[in-house]
Amino acid sequence: MSSIISIKNLHKAFFNKKVLHGIDLEIAAGQIIGYIGPNGAGKSTTIRILAGLDRQFRGEVTVMGYNVKEEPLEVKKRIGYIPEAAEIYEVLTPLEFYELVGGLQDLEWETTRKRAKRLEEYLQLSYAKDQRIDTFSKGMKQKVLLISGLLHDPDLIFLDEPLAGLDANSVIRVKELLQRLTERGKTIFYSSHIMEVVEKISDRIILLNNGKIAANGTFEEINRQARSGSLENLFATLTGATSEALGDFDFTADE
Question: Is CATH 3.40.50.300 correct for 3-239?
Answer without folding.
Answer: yes
